[in-house]
């Protein structure tokens, strides 16, 4: 059975079972027709299939007459930033993010270095469905350039961000354990930390491209990493996913800082330096809202997905944004989730704070999140959500992305899946006990509506 998944951010699937060469050619060719002319930046994460996929993608783009700037193995945000800095016409980041070894994907970027908008994606799908070739003659092929400065330029510009005092961080001499899950982060995160004067302990930082554990940076996948942070008496631990757009932190006690707190502390740091709007998605913790309110600033929410967060950030001229999955977006550098940015903000924030990461966590608003998938069978998800709107009229409702309802002591977000017959339900409350109670109540409620 094919695993191919097509979404607003591109295509993803299991290599050899959905993501075959002809599929790569099909979508890359359509993307080339969408871009039409000029140069396209191509980069990939470290996974084994990356070289194969990259070769096919680059060859197809050249065959369509587009010039290719190949930046090799690097984070997805490096591809985004290089599109911006080189004024390219587009970019393709080859990475299946947190999916296991057997997966790969094409993340398609527009001329701004951002994920394609909904309208751009619809235009691309129309081109795919036309099934036209339009390959160029031998004397009209694109030109290939290997660009080796992309990653270094990205790193150096991160270190030049305002509010980041490199010398002060160097003098602090943080001791940090880094887990890059043998992904693209290996090629930049340890080096950047050493340039910031940190003593770095590398963990899962080989260049093999084989992920030694499930690559999604969830607590249940980081047991050995958390133990290593505590065993080595580190100030904290840094974990990134294979393409380095998500940042997860571990306290000096070897405990999760929480993905949601990555963006919460980043917003707190930026707003402490500069007042402005911030944006997170509808499934992100209320703690960000509390922090924005603390500094007299406004928080706006968008539908889930980086492209949606970025669109809202531009709309409200936000100075910081992101998602509760550990993604930090700082427009000062570029409009994309970037773990390199998250790392330097964390170091500076911790330096300014003067205490430990666990102490910093204690100062942040404290909430608990619970999640469930509700199988729908043959039920229509839209009809279920419409019934939920009527049932919970007492709460403050937002219907931009499914249904989010805010109550005084908790909130709940119902979203239908685009790939499975399920509704995703996420609840946040002030205690773990309350969050679990509410999620179970909502689960039972939805089942009664079938």
Task: Walk me through what this model shows.
The chain folds into 3 domains: 5-154, Alpha-D-Glucose-1,6-Bisphosphate, Chain A, domain 3, CATH 3.40.120.10; 159-363, Alpha-D-Glucose-1,6-Bisphosphate, Chain A, domain 3 (3-Layer(aba) Sandwich); 368-448, TATA-Binding Protein, CATH 3.30.310.50. Helix content is 37%, strand content 23%. The mean pLDDT is 95. With 450 residues, it is α/β, with parallel strands linked by helices. The strands form 4 sheets. Strands 1, 2, 3, 4, 5, 6, 7 and 8 form an 8-stranded mixed sheet that branches. It has a 5-stranded antiparallel sheet with strand order 17-21-20-19-18, covered by helices on one side. Strands 10-9-11-12 form a 4-stranded mixed sheet, sandwiched between helices. Helix 1 (21-35) packs across helix 2 (50-63). It has helices spanning 21-35, 50-63, 76-85, 118-130, 150-158, 166-172, 189-195, 223-231, 259-273, 287-294, 306-316, 339-353, 357-363, 381-391, 432-448, and strands at 5-7, 10-15, 18-19, 39-44, 67-73, 90-94, 103-109, 144-146, 175-179, 199-203, 236-240, 247-250, 278-281, 299-302, 320-323, 327-329, 368-375, 396-398, 403-406, 410-416, 422-429.
What are its keywords?
450 residues; alpha/beta; Alpha-D-Glucose-1,6-Bisphosphate, Chain A, domain 3; TATA-Binding Protein; 3 domains; eight-stranded mixed β-sheet; five-stranded antiparallel β-sheet; 15 helices; 37% helix
Topology:
Layout (H helix, E strand, L loop, with lengths): L4 E3 L2 E6 L2 E2 L1 H15 L3 E6 L5 H14 L3 E7 L2 H10 L4 E5 L8 E7 L8 H13 L13 E3 L3 H9 L7 H7 L2 E5 L9 H7 L3 E5 L19 H9 L4 E5 L6 E4 L8 H15 L4 E4 L5 H8 L4 E4 L3 H11 L3 E4 L3 E3 L9 H15 L3 H7 L4 E8 L5 H11 L4 E3 L4 E4 L3 E7 L5 E8 L2 H17 L2
Parallel strand pairs: 2-3, 4-5, 4-6, 5-8, 9-10, 9-11, 13-14, 13-15
Antiparallel strand pairs: 1-2, 2-7, 6-7, 11-12, 15-16, 17-21, 18-19, 19-20, 20-21
Helix pairs in contact: 1-2, 1-4, 9-10, 9-12
């Amino acid at each position: 059975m094919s695993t191919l998944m097509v979404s607003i951010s591109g295509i993803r699937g299991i290599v050899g079972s959905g993501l075959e060469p002809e599929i790569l050619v099909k979508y890359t060719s359509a993307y080339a027709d969408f871009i039409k002319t000029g140069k396209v930046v191509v980069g990939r994460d470290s996974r084994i299939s990356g070289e194969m996929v990259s070769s096919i993608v680059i060859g197809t783009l050249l065959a369509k007459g587009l010039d290719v700037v190949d930046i090799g193995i690097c984070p997805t945000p490096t591809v985004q930033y290089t599109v911006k800095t080189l004024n390219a016409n587009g970019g393709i980041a080859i990475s299946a993010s947190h999916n296991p070894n057997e997966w790969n994907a094409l993340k398609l970027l527009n001329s701004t270095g951002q994920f394609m908008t909904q309208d751009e994606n619809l235009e691309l799908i129309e081109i795919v469905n036309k099934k036209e070739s339009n390959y160029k003659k031998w004397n009209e092929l694109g030109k290939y350039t290997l660009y080796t400065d992309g990653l270094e330029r990205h790193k150096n510009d991160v270190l030049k961000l305002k509010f980041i005092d490199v010398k002060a961080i160097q003098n602090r001499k943080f001791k940090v354990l880094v887990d890059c899950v043998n992904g693209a982060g290996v090629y930049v995160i340890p080096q950047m930390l050493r340039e910031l004067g940190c003593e770095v302990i590398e963990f899962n930082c080989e260049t093999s491209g084989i992920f030694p554990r499930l690559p999604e940076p969830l607590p249940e996948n980081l047991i050995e990493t958390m133990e290593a942070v505590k065993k080595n008496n580190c100030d904290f631990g840094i974990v990134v996913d294979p393409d380095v757009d998500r940042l997860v932190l571990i306290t000096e006690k070897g405990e999760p800082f929480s993905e949601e707190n990555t963006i919460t502390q980043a917003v707190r740091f930026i707003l402490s330096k500069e007042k402005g709007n911030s944006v997170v998605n509808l499934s992100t913790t209320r703690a960000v809202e509390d922090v924005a309110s603390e500094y007299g600033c406004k928080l706006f929410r968008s539908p889930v997905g980086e492209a949606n967060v970025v669109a809202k950030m531009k709309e409200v001229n936000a100075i910081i944004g992101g998602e509760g999955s550990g993604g930090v977006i700082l427009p000062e550098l570029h409009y994309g989730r970037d773990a390199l940015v998250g790392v330097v903000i964390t170091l500076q924030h911790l330096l300014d704070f003067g205490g430990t990461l666990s102490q910093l966590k204690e100062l942040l608003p404290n909430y608990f999140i619970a999640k469930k998938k509700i199988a729908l069978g043959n039920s229509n998800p839209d009809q279920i959500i419409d019934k939920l709107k009527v049932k919970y009229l007492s709460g403050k409702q937002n219907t931009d992305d499914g249904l989010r309802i805010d109550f005084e002591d908790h909130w709940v977000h119902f979203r239908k899946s685009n790939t499975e017959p399920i509704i995703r339900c996420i609840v946040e409350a002030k205690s773990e006990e309350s969050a679990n109670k509410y999620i179970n109540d909502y689960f039972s409620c939805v089942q009664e509506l079938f």
